[in-house]
């Protein structure tokens, strides 16, 4: 007699658009893949079917796909990144494996956010930064000079006190207001004496705050929008 069962999906990431599969490294609750991602990649996490619905999928980096929300659309430009699946925090997170190269804060190639105990991912209550540079999080590089951060007010941020940096640590930093020219949503921010972002008008609870920075100009262009919900990615766009 024999005992056979199928299928047994491997634990890893399927890249539909690159026709490749990579198994996770790691142990315990923390698993990761370091690899090349390409703009508009469509990926799927394999081997965690029952757990998947509970996972926080970082909206800065990924859109859910309309019609199949088990798929994720990668929003960044081509490059090498680290995707981490943290089962303890029930989160899928991303990190850019690149420090900023720039002229001061112009034409930067990477941006990180570091802030107080009221900002964190997947939530500030669960995993706040609190000025610990090891917990810095990337903005997604949409292009070579455009970066974006998406935060759900009340979950990821609740009390605005943070700054953008050129590395996962102290060093190059964007010190407002001289670093920025507000193009949209300037009413949402003011700057502390140390150049940190603070809130001017209250950030509306339950809305997604989208911060976009264009670094090709000096000062950098800054757009801030409050969205009720995030759009799904339409396959074939």
Order of helices and strands: EEEEEHEEEEEEHEEEEEEEEEE
Number of strands: 21
Q: Tell me the structural class.
A: mainly beta
Question: Measured on Cα atoms, how large is the radius of gyration?
Answer: 18 Å
Form type: globular
Strand content: 35-45%
Largest sheet: 6 strands, antiparallel
Q: Any low-confidence stretches, pLDDT <50, length ≥5? A: none
Q: What is the straight-line distance between the termini?
A: 51 Å
Description:
The structure is a single chain. This protein has 237 residues and is mainly beta. Helix content is 3%, strand content 40%. A hairpin with a 4-residue loop joins strand 9 (79-86) and strand 10 (91-96). The radius of gyration is 18 Å and the shape is globular. It starts with 11 loop residues before the first strand and ends in a 10-residue tail after the last strand. The model has no long low-confidence stretch (mean pLDDT 92).
